[in-house]
Amino acid sequence: VFPSLAQAQASVANEVYRELGQPSVFLFCPTEYCSSLCSPSPSQSCYLLTIGQELLPGIGVIWTGPKVVSQELSATQLEEVEGVLRRRPVIWDNLYANDYDCRRVFLGPYMGRAPGLMPRLHGLLLNPNCELQANFIPIHTLGSWFRSELGSCAHPDHAGMETATALEDSQGSEEGSYSPQDALELALRDWVAEINRQALEPGR
């Protein structure tokens, strides 16, 4: 029926999207969801070019970066993806994912993401460790990164301004750009406080 996999996927995704009334959040994960899976590159991938052309503009497209687990993300990389997909990508960040090797747990700060990425993103999802409580530092430091990104946006939208104000009111404003080490120290301090609070609960 379809001349290519990409056209088949886009057609089905578009049909489901319309059937659901074109919801505000509808995400599509392409078969080529990172640079290393593209042939020969994201900007020259026939598959991604077709997805970008055929997929309705209201549908978000998931992207993990240069690799399935990307150590770094840059604005240049995201600009290339945005160009071929004709929309800003939704980053599915596997930095902390350990489902492929459950012998390891990742507890470091959120890092390797260049400053100023927010204008290049339609959204960001963090794929966490499988162990729930081990995600305190990853999520806490992601929050610190997000606050610094909101503060550095040249033209944040009104909703972003409200979010930034609420975060600063609740957690205190931070000066300067994001520092993984500072974010880690802040997360550790808050985690110890949370552990001590739970230790005092009845039945602990």
UniProtKB/TrEMBL annotation:
Protein name as annotated: OGA GlcNAcase
GO biological process: glycoprotein metabolic process
Species whose genome carries this gene: Pandion haliaetus (Osprey)
GO molecular function terms attached to this record: beta-N-acetylglucosaminidase activity
Gene name per UniProt: Mgea5
InterPro entries per record: GH, Glycosyl_Hydrolase_84, O-GlcNAcase_cat
Domain GH84 span(s) in chain numbering: 1-150
